[in-house]
Each structure stands twice: as structure tokens, then as C-alpha cells.
């Protein structure tokens, strides 16, 4: 409850901040007046003229801020359109002409007044009352400003005119920002406002606060006409002054520096985002001339060459993703709720870091990284081509001066994948008072900087070699997440490799979000530009893919490796602490004992019987300890044990589920079989077929191949479940079909030669059909098991007890848990419209029972054996010249082995995943016999238990 209250308070605070900025501040402080809206929900209409494309050639109005394509103007371009249309392709180069009338408060007379643009794509020329405000600004993603004090009227409206050119007149700006693998837009896409200062003021405040409590601040002093004093007060989270520093300044001084030390400060890390503020006051005697406040954190960043990256003296491994500033309806014009949602999504995946790809973000996103705790790589634009030195120098300055006091930023990234101008490396330190390290985010060996190699898309085995070398390795992009490959697939092996390597600093998955844009020129479809932009582990509106949950488990800082409860489980669980700065006694744990709903129950899920919070063990960072659950004596009477772990801020870290017994136990009340079922089974035999009938269910077997050739359910309608079993790998030759009557049913035995050894059916008098089969395969196989056919277009949905709700791959078994899940049939291909998750089709793990709901009626499949994968229908994980991986024959498969999946990048052309590590190799089968029992009920299955009434999820009273 406290966590929810805090989040609600934080969100309300975030949403109110822009409005608060409009409120009149004291004359001794900076005052703000917005000319535009503050975000994509609160805009202001300006007059607008577009020179080309849609809605061009006449004056109308436009929302500011916005990307003008999303308002119906101009033409769309993806940054790699030059590849699609050839080297002579000309990007849409329309210009937008803006006009806006505004007044200035009379109280601002005599103050310095600046107009500030937070972001405008791309070249921006500003005039106020017909006068040019300054040089044309070139570069889209940077805060820039002009002093317009001498151009304003205080007794009449002022006219602002802005000309924004989509394509820059500076070729290297276009090369760095617009010839890129992302959508490119035009327009004033971030807010525009006026800020006014008293004549004597401080600006460009830079703070250097180290983990040991040393504190220094530097600021530019403007227009100081007489001697004075600058005072820096350090305020803690409660607003109390905990330390003060003072310095004398002389007339005409332009820079002031102050320093002091705070004993035992609360340090900032991504796990402990403790924040302070410094209040800077410029005084002349007892008179306050100017006052400003900056937020900061005490923390120390070190690159220890050949060892790793250290924060506050502790080595850290960055578990990160790449984040584009993105929203489908409004492009790069966002709001505080989107920023907050993205930070929370990243942290929900148990990540501790984010890379700004490939440009600096809105200030609000960084503020949230500060307050909620994420390490940040802040990046200068330059996708694969760099700014010239002349064009880049002012942009580095603008980025650093805007972002330098965010403790979350631990590195400056000087461009991406060849978009690095090394002449700019030393510019960062000129403006960053704390002198953070600079890195180069690159995709080729030999471009390391500051002792860190960031090479992109190395596989498991090449990563091993890099980590055995002398450099720190921190890939700023790896495991490309296009389609269903990458992200979580192959991550378990690769992350263990990084975690255990001394010289690993972690890495950043590509990427967080599928960049799908609502095309206002194409009936508002969401366009991902074919395979170029669907690169995320969440969809355009943050729809969660299966990899999202796999990443969450793999990156969990609380690591529990127990896969199933031992026969003599004593309630003790080994737990590894993978936090860097947090003891597990700061976390919270809770167990639940649950029973699963049955197939005849109209609801999915489980019913909680008992639960309890347990004592958290004292396990130091990077240590291993024991978690004692203290379960009640009757714990085995329940179906499953669920253990939840919460971090010190009461956020769920992960939830583990273990069955308390076998699948056979879970099928109590599902399989309505008696030891002696005396109901008669009718047998009909002709030359080509054998038919058995019980409880109004009819199954016909072919005498020519031994397979099911027809089924009638207990509702009297035909069910098109046929043509099986067929081996999905290996060979088999049918040799005959026999049948005989036993006390509890009719037995049908099909004999084969080859890899399929035996298939034995039994129709019970109550209609249950038992199938026992055995096969043996040797060598490498993508999958192993048997298949049947059933038309997918007849399927309404499925309910199952097993791992879910997402599908799995051999190298992405994480992120799913045992429960009763239900899913309607959908045709989703991961990372493509309509982004309906979980996908219906795929491989589903450890199935106890699965009920298929079809237009022909229901049918139920169950197995008392563990480790059953069920494949549902035809799908593919990776798009390409040939969709991959290949599929088993048939439509519904019962498998003992399933394939891994590759990624878009870093592998050969057929998406062979073998280089992603041991889990990603194909299945190596020894020739040992594989046996399994399946049960089928064709119709609405009987059950021993009555459906349970629906109960809302139990409210978590842990806190």
C-alpha cells in the first residue's frame, strides 16, 4: 500500500512540475513562462506553414510541441530510406514556418530574458519582433537558447517567428542524426519557453560530489557589478541544511568555485538513489540577488583498467537496455507519464542501466533515473557517421551543460557505431565539472576508449575471447531483439559469462521499444518500416513480449536456482545475492500455498490457501545464503508453493513457483479413471479401419498407417483431430494394428519399425483415450516427439496447466511459471501488428493438461509425465529470407525437445543460433528410449471436482 501511495504521489508530482514552473517565482530566482505546451498532451496552437508534402502551401495552425508529420504535415522518412530508394534518393526536406504572439510580464522589465528550445528538428532560425535572435541552431536533440532581452516589447504583444528546416544545411548534422536506423521527423518537438533572470545571476552550475562526501560546485557569475558572496547550502531529502560552503566573489568575476565535505553522506547508486540538493545564493551584503537550486547525488565513478567499472568503490555489472524516446501517436514528443512508465518497465526487468540511443533524452527522463535509480549512458547523436568538429562542439556543450548534474549519468557516449569524432572527446571534460568518463559505443574491434571495449553483437564464444583479453568489455548493444529472437533468447548463457568475468562491465540489450509510428498518411496504421524498427522487448505501446519476462528472471538480483522441490524438502532454499550494494535483509519475502483450478472451472489461475511473510536472511552483496520458509506441516496438501521476493522499495523482484508433487498429483480430479471401468467399449472393424466407441465418443484408427483418421466428440459432432501420431524427427514404418479387450477398456496396439518403437492405445469405458508411446533418436535434431493435425482456423482458444502464459524456446525457458493459463487464439507474430501478447501459437512448456476450445467443441489432453512441450500450430520466430526456425510437421505436437532461436544480428544468414552458447545448440540425442503417456478426452471432459467460484486475486497484505 505504501509503495502504491508513493508511486501515485511521484506521478502526481511529475505531472504537476511543468505547471508549477509557470507559477510566479520570487524576483531573485529564475522565472519561467511557457510559450508552447509542456508535452504531447498539453500543447499550444501556433500559426504554421509547411513548405512541402501534405497540408503544405497555406497558413494554418499546429500543436506545439509536436513532430509535424504526426499533425498531418509534410512527408515521412525512415532514416535508412536512402538504402531503399538508392543513393540518389532525396529526403523529404520541407520547412516549417511558425508564428506565435506572446506578452511579457511587466515585472520582467530590467531582467535578462532568454528564449529556450528543448529540442527542434533540425536547423532552427528564430526571430523576435522581426529581429534575428542569433545564429541558426543546427542539431535536433539539444537544448539551445538566445538572449532576447533587447528585442522584446513590454507594452505590446511580441511576435515570435521560427523557421525549422527538416534537413540541415550542415551535411554532417544530417549524416549524424538523419541518415540513421530510426524514424526521422521535423518540427519543434520539445517545449519552448522564456526564462528571466535578475541582472546579476549564476548559471551553468556544475556539481562534483564524491562518495566520500567531498563536494564542489562551479558556476558562471553573470554581470556582477560589485563584490559579493556565494553560499552553497547542501539540503538532504527532508529539506534540512546539512552543510554550507561560502566563497567571496569580486566585481566582474565570471566563475565561482566552492568546496566542502559532508561526513557520511547517503550515497547514490542505482540501488540506493539517495538525492540531495544544493541551494546557491548570490548575495551583496545581506541582500539576496539571486538564488537557484540543483539536485545531485554523492557517488564516485571509476574505470579501473583491466578490472572493471566501479561505483562508490564497488564493481558493478550494468544490466541495461537501449531506449529511444518514442510514442506511436506523437513520435519523439513525449510526456512525463511515458518517461515514468519506461523507467518502471526497465526496472521491472531487473535492469539497473539504460543507454540513451542515439541522442540525449528529455530532462524529465533523467530526473526519474536519478530518483528511481538507473545508471545512464548519455549519448551524443551520431548513428554511424559523426558530426564535424565545428558542428559537434556546440552540441557537446549543450548536452553536457543540460545534463551534467544528474547522478544517474555515469558515462558520456561520444556517438554510435562509427559516429564518433575523436576530436570531441576532450570537450566533455571542459563542461562537465565532475569529469565523467567518455566512451565510444562501437560495432567493430579496435575502437576502445578509456579502457572499455563496447563492441556490438558478439556471440557467446567471441565474448569469451574478449573477456579473456586485457580490456574491460561492455557491449553497448547485444542480442538484437527483433522478432522473437534476441533479448531473452540466449541471454542466460551470455549473462552468466559476463557475471563471472572480472573484466565485464555488463552490457545493454538492443532495444527497449518497437518503434512503430502511427502513420497519419496511411489511415493511422502502425508502421515499423518492415524489419528496420521492431527491435524492442516491448511493443510501441509497451506491450510486453516473452523476452521481457525472461530478462526479468535472468537479471534478477535475487537468484534462486532450485528448479523443483526435492523429495525431502525441508523448507530451506539456497539464495544468491546479486545486488551490488544491498543486503538481502533489506528485502522482503513471502510464500503462498495454492491449488490450481480444473479444466471444468470457467476461470483460470489458482486459489491461495495459505501465505506468510518470512524473515529475510542477512546475505551480503554477492554472497550466498539460506532462506528458511517455515512452511506449515500440511504444505504437501496443496498443488504448488509460490515464493515472492520484494526489494527494499517493496517492488516485486521475482516470483518462483514449484509444484509440491508430480503431474499425476495435479491430474487428481481431472482424469476420471477408475481402477476397473466396467462400461462397455464398442468395437467396429472393417478392412481399412478400426473404430472404438465409449460414452458417445468415437475414435477411428487407420489399418494402413495406424493413425487416428476420425473422431466424434461426446456432443455428437466430428472433431477434425486426425493424422497422428507422426514422428516429427526420425523414421518409422507401420507394420500392423491389433486390438484386444481388457477389463478396463479396449486396447489398440500399432507396431512399427524404425525410430518409433511402439504405440499403445486404450479406450476406457468413460470415454478417456490413453496413449502410450516410445521412440528413440540419436544425433542432432531440432525437435523430438509426435504430431497430429487439427485446422487452426477452427480454434477459439486454449486453457492449460503448465508453464505460461508465454511460449518458450530451448534457449529461452525463463520468465514463465506454472499456473492455469488461458489465451484466445491470435495470429500475432512477435514485434508486428497487432501486438497481442502472449502469442497463442508456439511451444509451451511442462504441460500437465491443455484444453482446446474449438468451433467443433472442446477436447482435452493430459499427461502425468513431466517435461512435456506442446506445440500449437504454425508460427515462426524470426523473419527473413526464410522464416526460422523450421517447424515440426502437423499442427499440434507433443514434444520432448524443442529448438532454440537465433537473433537478427551476430549469426549467419540462416539464423543458426548455435553461437549464442550451450543452451542455443541443437538437441544432441543419445538414442536412449523416450517414453510418454498422453490422455485425450474428445468433448467437455468429466471431472471429479466441482468448479470453484471466482475469487478476486488475494490482496497482497505483505506490507
Automatic annotation (TrEMBL):
* GO CC, one annotated term: beta-galactosidase complex
Q: Which residues form the signal peptide?
A: 1-23
Record keywords, A-Z: Calcium, Glycosidase, Hydrolase, Signal
Q: Glycoside hydrolase family 2 catalytic domain: from which residue to which, for each copy? A: 303-523
Query: Pfam families under this entry?
Result: Glyco_hydro_2 (PF00703), Glyco_hydro_2_C (PF02836), Glyco_hydro_2_N (PF02837)
Superkingdom of source: Bacteria
Give the coiled coil ranges.
Answer: none
Kindly state a single biological-process term from the GO annotations of this entry.
Answer: lactose catabolic process
Q: How would you classify this enzyme at the top EC level?
A: hydrolase
Return the InterPro entries for the record.
Bact_Beta-galactosidase, Beta-gal/glucu_dom_sf, Gal_mutarotase_sf_dom, Galactose-bd-like_sf, GH, GH-type_carb-bd, Glyco_hydro_2, Glyco_hydro_2_cat
Recorded GO molecular functions are: beta-galactosidase activity; carbohydrate binding
4Fe-4S recorded as keyword: no
CC cofactor: Ca(2+)
Catalytic activity as recorded in UniProt: Hydrolysis of terminal non-reducing beta-D-galactose residues in beta-D-galactosides
Entry-linked Gene3D superfamilies: 2.70.98.10, Galactose-binding domain-like, Glycosidases, Immunoglobulins
Bilayer-crossing regions: none
Residue span, Glycoside hydrolase family 2 immunoglobulin-like beta-sandwich domain: 211-299
Is Plastid given among the entry's keywords?
A: no
Quaternary form? Monomer.
Which family does the similarity line name? Belongs to the glycosyl hydrolase 2 family.
Identification of the protein by name: beta-galactosidase
| Protein's organism | Hymenobacter arizonensis (Siccationidurans arizonensis)
Amino acid at each position: 500500500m505504501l509503495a502504491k501511495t508513493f508511486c501515485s504521489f511521484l506521478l502526481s508530482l511529475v505531472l504537476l512540475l511543468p505547471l508549477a514552473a509557470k507559477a510566479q517565482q520570487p524576483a531573485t530566482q529564475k522565472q519561467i513562462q511557457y510559450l508552447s505546451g509542456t508535452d504531447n498532451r498539453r500543447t499550444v496552437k501556433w500559426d504554421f506553414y509547411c513548405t512541402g508534402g501534405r497540408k503544405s502551401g497555406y497558413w494554418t495552425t499546429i500543436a506545439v510541441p509536436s513532430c509535424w508529420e504526426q499533425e498531418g504535415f509534410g512527408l515521412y522518412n525512415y532514416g535508412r530510406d536512402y538504402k531503399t530508394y538508392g543513393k540518389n534518393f532525396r529526403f523529404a526536406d520541407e520547412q516549417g514556418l511558425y508564428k506565435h504572439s506572446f506578452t511579457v510580464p511587466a515585472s520582467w522589465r530590467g531582467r535578462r530574458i532568454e528564449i529556450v528550445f528543448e529540442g527542434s528538428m533540425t536547423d532552427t532560425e528564430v526571430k523576435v519582433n522581426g529581429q534575428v535572435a542569433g545564429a541558426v541552431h543546427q542539431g535536433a536533440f539539444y537544448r539551445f537558447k538566445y538572449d532576447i532581452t533587447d528585442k522584446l516589447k513590454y507594452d505590446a504583444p511580441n511576435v515570435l517567428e521560427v523557421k525549422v528546416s527538416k534537413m540541415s544545411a550542415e551535411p554532417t548534422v544530417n549524416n549524424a542524426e538523419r541518415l540513421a536506423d530510426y524514424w526521422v521527423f521535423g518540427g519543434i518537438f520539445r517545449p519552448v519557453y522564456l526564462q528571466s533572470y535578475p541582472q546579476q545571476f549564476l548559471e551553468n552550475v556544475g556539481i562534483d560530489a564524491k562518495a566520500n562526501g567531498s563536494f564542489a560546485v562551479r558556476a558562471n557569475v553573470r554581470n556582477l557589478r560589485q563584490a559579493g558572496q556565494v553560499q552553497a547550502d547542501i539540503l538532504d531529502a527532508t529539506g534540512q541544511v546539512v552543510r554550507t560552503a561560502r566563497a567571496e566573489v569580486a566585481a566582474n568575476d565570471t566563475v565561482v568555485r566552492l568546496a566542502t565535505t559532508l561526513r557520511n553522506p547517503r550515497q547514490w547508486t542505482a540501488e540506493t538513489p539517495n538525492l540531495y540538493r544544493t541551494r546557491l545564493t548570490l548575495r551583496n551584503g545581506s541582500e539576496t540577488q539571486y538564488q537557484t537550486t540543483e539536485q545531485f547525488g554523492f557517488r564516485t565513478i571509476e574505470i579501473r583498467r583491466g578490472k572493471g567499472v566501479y561505483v562508490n568503490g564497488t564493481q558493478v555489472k550494468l544490466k541495461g537496455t537501449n531506449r529511444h524516446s518514442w510514442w506511436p501517436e506523437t513520435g519523439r514528443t513525449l510526456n512525463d507519464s511515458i518517461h515514468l512508465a519506461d523507467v518502471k518497465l526497465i526496472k521491472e526487468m531487473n535492469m539497473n542501466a539504460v543507454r540513451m540511443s542515439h541522442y540525449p533524452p528529455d530532462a524529465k527522463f533523467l530526473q526519474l533515473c536519478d530518483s528511481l535509480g538507473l545508471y545512464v549512458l548519455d549519448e551524443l547523436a551520431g548513428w554511424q557517421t559523426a558530426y564535424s568538429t565545428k558542428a559537434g562542439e556546440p552540441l557537446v556543450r549543450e548536452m553536457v551543460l543540460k545534463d551534467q548534474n544528474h547522478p544517474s549519468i555515469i558515462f558520456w557516449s561520444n556517438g554510435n557505431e562509427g559516429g564518433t569524432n575523436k576530436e570531441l572527446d576532450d570537450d566533455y571534460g571542459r563542461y562537465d565539472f565532475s569529469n565523467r568518463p567518455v566512451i565510444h559505443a562501437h560495432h567493430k574491434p579496435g575502437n576502445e576508449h578509456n579502457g572499455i571495449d563496447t563492441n556490438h553483437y558478439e556471440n557467446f564464444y567471441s565474448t569469451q575471447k574478449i573477456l579473456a583479453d586485457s580490456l574491460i568489455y561492455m557491449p553497448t548493444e547485444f542480442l538484437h531483439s527483433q522478432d522473437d529472437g534476441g533479448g531473452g533468447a540466449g541471454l542466460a548463457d551470455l549473462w552468466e559469462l559476463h557475471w563471472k568475468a572480472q573484466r565485464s562491465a555488463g552490457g545493454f540489450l538492443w532495444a527497449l521499444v518497437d518503434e512503430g509510428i502511427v502513420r497519419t498518411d496511411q489511415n493511422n496504421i502502425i508502421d515499423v518500416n518492415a524489419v528496420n524498427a521492431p527491435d524492442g522487448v516491448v511493443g510501441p505501446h509497451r506491450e510486453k513480449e516473452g523476452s521481457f519476462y525472461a530478462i526479468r528472471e535472468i537479471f534478477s538480483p535475487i537468484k534462486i536456482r532450485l528448479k523443483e522441490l526435492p523429495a525431502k524438502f525441508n523448507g530451506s532454499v539456497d539464495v544468491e545475492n546479486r545486488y551490488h550494494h544491498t543486503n538481502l535483509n533489506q528485502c522482503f519475502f513471502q510464500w503462498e500455498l495454492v491449488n490450481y483450478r480444473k479444466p471444468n472451472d470457467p476461470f483460470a489461475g489458482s486459489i491461495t490457501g495459505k501465505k506468510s511473510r518470512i524473515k529475510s536472511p542477512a546475505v551480503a552483496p554477492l554472497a550466498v545464503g539460506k532462506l528458511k520458509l517455515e512452511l506449515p506441516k500440511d504444505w504437501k496438501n496443496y498443488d504448488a508453493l509460490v515464493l515472492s521476493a520484494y526489494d527494499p522499495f517493496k517492488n516485486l523482484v521475482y516470483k518462483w513457483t514449484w509444484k509440491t508433487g508430480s503431474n499425476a498429483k495435479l491430474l487428481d480430479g481431472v482424469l476420471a479413471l477408475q481402477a476397473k471401468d466396467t462400461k462397455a467399449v464398442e468395437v467396429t472393424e472393417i478392412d481399412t479401419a478400426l473404430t472404438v466407441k465409449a460414452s458417445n465418443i468415437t475414435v477411428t484408427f487407420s489399418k494402413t498407417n495406424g493413425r487416428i483418421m476420425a473422431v466424434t466428440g461426446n456432443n455428437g459432432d466430428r472433431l477434425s483431430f486426425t493424422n497422428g501420431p507422426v514422428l516429427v524427427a526420425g523414421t518409422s514404418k507401420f507394420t500392423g494394428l491389433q486390438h484386444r479387450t481388457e477389463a478396463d477398456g479396449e486396447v489398440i496396439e500399432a507396431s512399427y519399425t524404425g525410430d518409433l518403437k511402439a504405440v499403445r492405445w486404450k479406450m476406457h469405458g468413460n470415454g478417456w483415450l490413453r496413449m502410450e508411446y516410445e521412440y528413440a533418436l540419436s544425433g542432432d535434431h531440432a525437435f523430438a516427439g509426435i504430431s497430429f493435425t487439427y485446422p487452426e482456423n477452427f480454434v477459439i482458444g486454449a486453457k492449460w496447466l503448465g508453464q505460461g502464459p508465454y511460449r518458450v524456446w530451448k534457449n529461452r525457458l525463463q520468465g514463465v511459471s506454472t499456473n492455469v493459463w488461458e489465451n484466445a487464439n491470435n495470429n500475432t507474430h512477435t514485434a508486428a501488428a497487432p501486438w497481442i501478447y502472449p502469442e497463442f501459437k508456439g511451444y509451451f512448456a511442462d504441460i500437465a493438461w491443455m484444453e482446446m476450445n474449438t468451433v467443433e467443441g472442446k477436447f482435452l489432453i493430459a499427461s502425468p509425465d513431466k517435461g512435456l512441450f506442446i506445440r500449437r500450430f504454425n508460427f515462426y520466430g524470426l523473419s527473413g529470407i526464410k522464416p526460422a526456425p523450421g517447424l515440426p510437421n502437423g499442427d499440434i505436437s507433443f514434444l520432448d525437445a524443442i529448438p532454440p532461436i537465433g537473433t537478427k544480428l551476430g549469426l549467419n544468414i540462416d539464423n543458426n543460433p548455435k553461437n549464442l552458447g550451450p543452451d542455443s545448440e541443437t538437441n544432441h540425442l543419445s538414442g536412449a528410449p523416450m517414453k510418454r503417456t498422453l490422455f485425450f478426452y474428445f468433448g467437455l471432459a468429466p471431472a471429479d471436482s466441482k468448479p470453484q467460484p471466482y475469487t478476486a486475486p488475494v490482496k497482497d497484505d505483505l506490507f
